[in-house]
């Protein structure tokens, strides 16, 4: 505090406010930077997943024998490829990935001889302008051990001197071995550019807010504290004997007005002293003896008056510096002692007023802190109660809907059981017809098998013709290139037809065995249907009882739901009122702290009264969730409902069904 006393109050208040604003802006900037960093990481993962989805979809379309399995969230789960081409005639496939996503993509293939993955096609361009095809992944990097275990690698990597956010998805063979990698990458500079732009905008906005706040605080401080320097200058002028000046701010109703009125009393007393001196001048016409005696008396009085003026000047100087503990103890001369008593009385009254204000401020601040803690706890409890009632209301409504639905389904089940009885009686004839139909299916399967053999022979002849056509197209040179492409496509179609015919033949053979098994099962089904028919009658009677009980329960639960909805609305209104009270309590606490900081600029002497400390809120109490009586009530209703209905807790009644 002694260091701050070297500067003016306006500068101190403005500098302190600017420092606090700077700290606040730094805290806000740090929080925003953390949010932006998290957003960058999320954006990188999102763009990686998007690029990998596009690359996997195009690979499945353009590379034969490729199958992509998708996860529940829509991302790539597993890529299975029968064979990765050792070389790609064109890179149109990988370039189309780049055009659609704007990012890089690469297909790696495993090389057993080098025990490493090699780039077969990529849209990454080396510094010399060529594609990075034919380069290896490298066993020393962080990607190799992860991918060889069949896991997906996701992280940062530097490729040809450029940093990327990358994802490496392993490609499996049908047998489950890792035979390649599908890579997708996002340039790190694209993602981090957003963070740079946001940081620059935040810095500019923070600087503008800081400058505006400091300027506003400077004007505000100057307007509030301007009377104090003027009173200080007035006190110094009075101490120097300039009594013709006017004391400002005597009309003010605050502490500054009290100080100004005390200075006015000092000025009037100094004027009275001058009048005494003038009267002393007029008495010089007296006799020499009387003059000498009077001179001696006047010198003594003048010395005492000078002492009075000096001591009053020192006291007013200390008052101007904010020290209200000053008091003139030694009495003045009888004619001027009234000035001392008036001075002490004015300062004492001012000091007592500020002490009362200080003590009241501390009491208000202490009460506001305790009230704020209590209101915060009440707010949390009210919000928890409101949430519990809302959940309870939803649960009761759901139970009511469930019971109503159960009653309706019970009635429908009764009707369906009656129809099921009639259908069961006619099932025996249907079973016999099913046995006959399965025999016909077995005969048709044999005929289809013969047809499949013919298709297989046709596919073999087509494949042989396509092979001969390809040889002839190769002999024809440039003129036969188009025909060679057609021959290749015909050959692939023939191979697929042969494979499909073989699979169909195997399925038909398997179906024959299954038909035989089905005949036996249908015969057993006929015997079981007769037993089911006897038990359906018993089930029909029990479902009628269940439907009646469920209808009665539905009516009672609807009444309970209406009551809980009304209680939920009242709790929501209480929560809103608690929020308003909480805001007012915080505002009262802030105002008390502001008043206390202003009074602290004066030295009052003595010790402030110790305000009662607010009752601390135990950590366990603040964190404990209030048990909801409504939720307990719903639990009792649910248990009673389950016990009454016996739909799920009595397995003896449903075992046969």
Could you explain the architecture of this structure?
- This protein has helices spanning 9-62, 92-101, 143-148, 188-225, 227-239, 255-282, 288-320, 337-425, 427-476, 481-599, 619-623, 629-645; strands at residues 66-70, 76-81, 104-111, 116-122, 153-159, 162-172, 178-187.
- With 657 residues, it is α+β, with helices and mostly antiparallel strands.
- It folds into three domains: 78-189, PAS domain (Beta-Lactamase, 2-Layer Sandwich); 227-321, Orthogonal Bundle (Helix Hairpins); 385-653, no CATH class.
- Strands 1, 2, 3, 4, 5, 6 and 7 form a seven-stranded mixed β-sheet that branches.
- A hairpin with a 5-residue loop joins β6 and β7 (178-187).
- α5 (227-239) runs antiparallel to α7.
- The chain starts with 8 loop residues before the first helix and ends in a 12-residue tail after the last helix.
Structure, briefly:
With 657 residues, this protein is of the alpha+beta class. It has twelve helices and seven strands. Strands 1, 2, 3, 4, 5, 6 and 7 form a seven-stranded mixed sheet that branches.
List keywords for this structure.
single chain; 657 residues; alpha+beta; Beta-Lactamase; Helix Hairpins; 3 domains; 7-stranded mixed sheet; 12 helices; elongated; disordered C terminus
